[in-house]
Amino acid sequence: MTDPLWQILWHMVPLSLASFGGGPAIIAGLDVMVRQNGWIAPQDFLHLFAISRAAPGPGTTLATLIGWRLAGWTGATLASLAIYLPSSLVCYLVYRATSRHRDRKWHRAMREGLAPVGTGLVISGSIALIQISGNGWAGPAISVGAFLIFQGLPRIPAVLVLMAGGAASLLLAALS
Amino acid sequence: MRDTRTDPAPVPAGALFLTCLKVGSLSFGGGLTGWLHREFVQRRGWVSDDDFSATLAIAQVLPGANVVNLVVCLGEELRGPLGAAACVTGFLLPPVLSVLGLALLFDRLGQFPAVEIAMLGIACAALGMLLQICWLGLRRAKGSPRRLAVIAAVVVGVTVLKLPMILVVLLVAPVSVWLVWRRG
């Protein structure tokens, strides 16, 4: 049972199924898992965390990197499957079971009632992101600028706006 | 922007795969929900804004990475099991590969401060897409005290009172759904 591949499965599948709260819950769980098992040094964990943030996609790819450190490419593949597959299956089954009743009154009420809850969650998430982006007024200014560009030019490729944001950040840091 | 359709027609699995592959490849700096909203609601009109927000709430409550759950639900909605598989595969393949590529690269090169500053700017710009969802949701809620109250309750619960998100959703969602149900 000390085989690293077993260890990955044994720890990550339960984390996937219990990760209520999404990405932050998974990352916190991985942190605890790595500490308790002494898998990798804390500095290396932070390093991997930074890499997972620099790549596109969800920050939970941190799990992939931990698997990679523990057992190479096989570990990376297994960790990715262990962290994403179980929760995706649960989500799929729950969503499918409820959406069969699309035309029922309760389902319409559910969708219409959940929509503002979703909006509230995105607003809360945006506030949290603005708070941790720090860096004085530059960060929020870039966010608002990007928002105005997205609103004004709906057809503009998002990548262009993101690259402009990165350039603006470098420029502002150089000037200050 | 098309915002009226509530019963989406099936979308080819290939189109779902490619769209998710695009978001998965390009979504530097986070803000993935914003990316998905942009592609699925604003650009292609595959789902309505309201359905997107409702699906998002479901995806957030269930365990697992929220955006991955969201992609699974959108795929199921638009093309059944095949769509869900196409979406989640396309969505995760590029990030998993690029994170490994970056790890190999950084292990050789070390880290540069300029990269971090640029990444922060990219993340802030990506936040602009999330602000769009906020804006649309608030604009739709204009003139509906019920919607405004629900949004306010969630924001106060999560941001001001710092309650766990799951708890806030479990408290507010049933009330919100009941208010719609009662109206008939």
TrEMBL record, chain A:
What the entry lists under InterPro entries is as follows: CHR_Transporter (IPR052518), Chromate_transpt (IPR003370)
Record membrane topology:
Multi-pass membrane protein
Q: Which keywords, in A-to-Z order, does the entry hold?
A: Cell membrane, Membrane, Transmembrane, Transmembrane helix
Q: Where in the cell is it found?
A: Cell membrane
Q: Which domain of life is it from?
A: Bacteria
- Looking at the UniProt entry, the stretches that span the membrane are 12-33, 45-67, 73-94, 114-134, 154-175
What is a GO molecular function of this protein? chromate transmembrane transporter activity
**GO-annotated cellular components:** plasma membrane
What family is this protein classified in?
A: Belongs to the chromate ion transporter (CHR) (TC 2.A.51) family.
> What's this protein's name?
Chromate transporter
Give the organism, scientific name. Paracoccus laeviglucosivorans
From TrEMBL, chain B:
Q: How does it sit in the membrane?
A: Multi-pass membrane protein
Q: Where in the cell is it found?
A: Cell membrane
Q: Where are the transmembrane segments?
A: 12-32, 52-75, 82-105, 117-138, 150-181
The coiled-coil segments of this chain are: none
Q: List the InterPro entries.
A: CHR_Transporter, Chromate_transpt
Keywords attached to this Swiss-Prot or TrEMBL record, sorted alphabetically, are: Cell membrane, Membrane, Transmembrane, Transmembrane helix
Keyword Transmembrane helix attributed: yes
Write out the similarity annotation: Belongs to the chromate ion transporter (CHR) (TC 2.A.51) family.
Which protein is depicted? Chromate transporter
Organism (species):
Paracoccus broussonetiae
